[in-house]
Amino acid sequence: MPNYIRNYQAGATYFFTINLRDRQSQLLTTYINELRLAYQKTQQKMPFTTDAIIILPDHIPTIWTLPENDNDYPTRIRLFKSHFSRQLPAHVKQTNNQSRQRKNETGIWQRRYWEHTIKDDVDHNRHMDYIHYNAVKHGYAKSPSDWEHSTFMREVKRGRYDLNWVGDDYKDNRSGERQ
After folding, report:
1. Closest by CA position to 66, among listed 133, 3, 16, 18
2. What pLDDT is stored for residue 95 in this prediction?
3. At what angle do helices 73-87 and 32-45 cross, to 10 degrees?
4. C-alpha of 43 from chain center
5. Rounded to an integer, what distance in angstroms lies between the CA atom of residue 65 and that of residue 120?
6. What is the pTM of this model?
7. Mean pLDDT (whole number) for 7-35
8. Domains contained in the chain, CATH given
């Protein structure tokens, strides 16, 4: 059995990718209202700041900053997944997997998730660009502004991105600062 090593740092900023088990599924956008409600419930119970997020049909890349004296992102992710799963119709969350049934899992989520502690401003900028370019990368939109399920437009309003940003600086400079 693998031994996953996670970094726990109170008040840190983390990049996560949370995936559905079925990477061909479109559950996250089909049930977007249920997803938003699950996210709100999680934030109310265990607050965190969403630096960036994009909801794609089968996965969610996001950046969260935790409160100063808190490093418990695993519980937040577990709560978010369970809040969402509980809202789905029974036929969507049925599983034939006995291991998942014993653990009371619906079987829609991958058990693991990708976690990365943001190191500095360059790392933060690179991950912000990655998130906001993701719908274009996967062919869901021609421009980040075309994909409604992300924080891109919020960041345009804040002046971080130009409305017409299409990720050229991200594509040309994936290792560092924006141009």
Report:
1. 16
2. 56
3. 140
4. 14
5. 13
6. 0.87
7. 96
8. 10-118 (3.30.70.1290), 120-179 (no CATH)
Alpha helices in the chain (DSSP H): 27-30, 32-45, 73-87, 98-102, 121-137, 152-157, 168-172
Token output for 70? 């808190």
pLDDT, tens digit, 9 for 90 and up, residues 96-146: 555 444 444 458 999 899 999 999 999 999 999 999 999 999 999 999 999
SS3 content of the chain, % helix, strand, coil (to 5): 40, 15, 45
Instruction: Report the half-sphere exposure of 40 (CA within 13 A, side-chain side).
Output: 6
* Dihedral-angle region of residue 165 (phi above 0 means left; psi in -120 to 50 means alpha; beta otherwise): beta
User: Rounded to whole angstroms, how far apart are CA atoms 143 and 137?
Assistant: 10
Indicate the residue type of 103.
K
If you write DSSP's letter for every residue of 73-87 in order, what string do you get?
HHHHHHHHHHHHHHH
- Burial (0-12, 13-18, 19+ Cβ within 10 Å), 6: exposed
Q: What is the pLDDT of residues 50-86, one digit of tens each?
A: 999 999 999 999 999 999 999 999 999 999 999 999 9
pLDDT grade, residue 161 (50/70/90)?
A: very high
